[in-house]
Structures are given as C-alpha cells and as structure tokens.
Amino acid sequence: MSTELFEVVTPEAALARLMVHVLPLGRTERVPIDLAAGRVAAVDVRAPEGLPAFARAAMDGFALGAVDTFGATEGLPTYVRIAGEVPMGAAPAEPVLPGTAWLIHTGGMLPPRADAVVMVEHTQRIDATNIEVLRPVAPGDNVVQPGEDVAPGSVVLPAGHLAQPHDAGALAALGITEVEVVQAPRLGIIASGDEVVPAHRTPGPGQVRDVNSTALTALARAAGAEPIRFGIAPDDRATLARTVVRAHAETDALVISAGSSVSARDLTAGVIAALGAPGILAHGISVKPGKPTIVAVAEGKPVFGLPGNPVSALVVFDLLVAPAIRRLLGMTDAPMPQRCQARLAHNIPSVTGRVDYVPARLVEREGNLWAEPIFGKSNLIFTMVRAHGLIQVPLDLGGLRAGTIVDVRLF
C-alpha cells in the first residue's frame, strides 16, 4: 500500500513545523564590501564616525548668517557682499562676517559662523561683489548638519540584514572596507529516478534529462546558499540511501528531487525518515503544483523531498526551501516578492481547500495590463519559461473569473 500522502497540510503549516527545528548556522567570514551585496550581515556594523563629518551645503548658493536675510522680499531685497568662494574639498579660508556671504556649491563645507545657504535662484547679482537676496532663509535651511545622515556609533547594518548594492556605498562613505557576513549554507541536491539522465546525455526511450538539478542549483544560489550536487540516484533503496546519508553528512540542508512514480516517492520518504529525528514533519501539502512534497528535519538539518515534475519543484522551492535557507542564514529582513496587478484574461478553475499557482504571461493592451494564464502539466518546464510570474489562487476560492484583478508574483 502506498504511504504517499498520509497528511496533507497547508504550505504555511508545513513551514511553521519546519521552523521550530531549524536554527541559524552562525558560521561567519569577512569579505570586501564590494562582494557583500546579497550576503547577510553576521554582526551589527556600527558607524565609526558621523556622516557627514561637517556642515555642508545641500544646494548651490551663498553661505551666510540667516539673520542677514530676515525680511527680504523681491520688492525689498537684502543686500549682501560676496566675501569669496568656498573651494570644494577644502575648508573655507575665513568665517562669514555680518552682511557677507560666500559662494558655495552643493557638498561644500560651510564657513564658520554661517548657518544657512540661500539658493542661487533666490538671489540676484548686482555686480562682481554684491548680490540681492530675494527670499529669507532660516537657520539650517539648505544645510546638511554633521551626523544628520548617520550618528557616530549608530548601527548602519544590523545583524541579519541582507546587504544591498547601495549598502556597500554607504559603508565606503564611513571608511569601512570589510564586513563580517554569514557563510552560505551548503545545500545538497540529489536527483533520483531510473528515467533521469544527466543533461549532457541523449535520453534513451522512456528517459528524460535532469532538469531539476540545474534549476534548483540556480535557485539555491539566488537564495543565498552554496549548492552541492550529488548526482542522480536510481530507484534502488540501498543506492539512494547511501547517496542521501553522504549528502546529509556533508551539507547543512538537503533537497531530493524524487522520481515521478508513486513507488519512487515512497522510496524517498522511507530514506528520509531513516536519516534521524525528528524526521518527517509533513508528507503532502495542499498546493498545486507540488502536492507530493516531503518536509523533514534530521539532526537539525532541513530535508525536502520535492516532486520530480520541474514546475512543482520550482514552486515548492520558493514556498519552503528558500525560507529555510533564510533561517539558516539568520536573515531578519527577507526580501519581499516582486508583484504587480493585472486583469485576468481567462478563467482559472481550481478546487476549494488547495492553493493553486498558475504561470502567467503579462500583456499590455490599450494601456491596461493583462495576465494570460499558461495552462500546462507540472512536468512541462517551458510553461515557466514562457511566463513572467505566477498567479496564486487562494485556498478558499474555487477558481478565478476572467476580468478579475489578480496579483502576479513575478519571477
């Protein structure tokens, strides 16, 4: 008798069970800041100094004492003498005296006693050494104060933060050239099935190329893991078990892409169950495609049995494997999926009690964005290639009608 689906749970329930047993790894390394984007900060990074380090102009204009502009209007301007020009990259030579101003450019250092910058547009030249101020400014106007961007000692990159390219620039501004990040979790990837052959081989009768190992490797890297491939195991319990035990010992998490038959999935479940406690947490999730998914933890390491059909494997990776990788990394600010709204071009049938993910292509017609569902079985990988994203049919709906505004989760 098959033990294929002894308990079907929602993806959220399966993930909640998994997260109880998965802890951050805590292995760290130091990397140059230009290699930090896409990595997770291991410790709080604090500002060694304030930024900016000095009061600087936020606009091109004239640095002066704001009091000299009070009451200025276009009909009754204030007259101010130009004392000089602030050199870029250097300190002003003299302080601002009452009734005088210094020509200053954006980013320039304010002279001593200057507390505001009047914009060039709000002045009018009388001659080479005098201007009219046509509008008043208050103290602090058009000035970036010391420490206004970052205060000394403040946390600029919190532990668990997924660093972005602009973070590297911010660290450079503070003189930080290296940052401690979490080492990438090692994710083992095993394909299985007598019908599966490597991608470089020409399949024989009844055989298919290994699509999942390549796709899962790319997804693992994008999620922040280091993928390690352990090849293709046949539908033989002893051989599969040896491969799985080795991969489990050498990695931090494991994904097994099972063969397509029920017997192959049962074989995978048995091998996973034998890896260690607590074992299988869910066998079957209420999602299409991806129902025959296995979620387990063995000796603190997450283990997944993904369906052999490529679309199913990719959908389930996004729902369950990627969050597990983020937990291993200790990530505290998981990236939000990119979404857009579009009008549904065709009806999508579904079944209440199951979440459906349907590939969709986005098309613009007469200024409106339409989502065209791409219907196909879960073993047809090019349904994903032709799509821009996935439409989610919620658990409690029996489908979606054409014309409905839907969220499209973009790839």
Quick summary of this structure?
The protein is an alpha/beta fold and 411 residues long. The protein folds into 4 domains: 11-26 and 183-329, MoaB/Mog-like domain (Molybdenum Cofactor Biosythetic Enzyme, Chain A), CATH 3.40.980; 28-51 and 148-182, Molybdopterin biosynthesis moea protein, domain 2; 56-144, Molybdopterin biosynthesis moea protein, domain 3 (Molybdopterin biosynthesis moeA protein, domain 3, Beta Complex); 339-410, MoeA, C-terminal, domain IV (Beta-clip, Beta Barrel).
Key traits:
single chain, 411 residues, alpha/beta, Molybdenum Cofactor Biosythetic Enzyme, Chain A, Molybdopterin biosynthesis moea protein, domain 2, Molybdopterin biosynthesis moeA protein, domain 3, 4 domains, 6-stranded mixed beta sheet, 7 helices, 28 strands, 32% strand, elongated, disordered N terminus
CATH class of the largest domain: Alpha Beta
Estimate the mean pLDDT confidence: 91
What name does the CATH topology of the largest domain carry?
Molybdenum Cofactor Biosythetic Enzyme, Chain A
CATH architecture descriptor of the largest domain: 3-Layer(aba) Sandwich
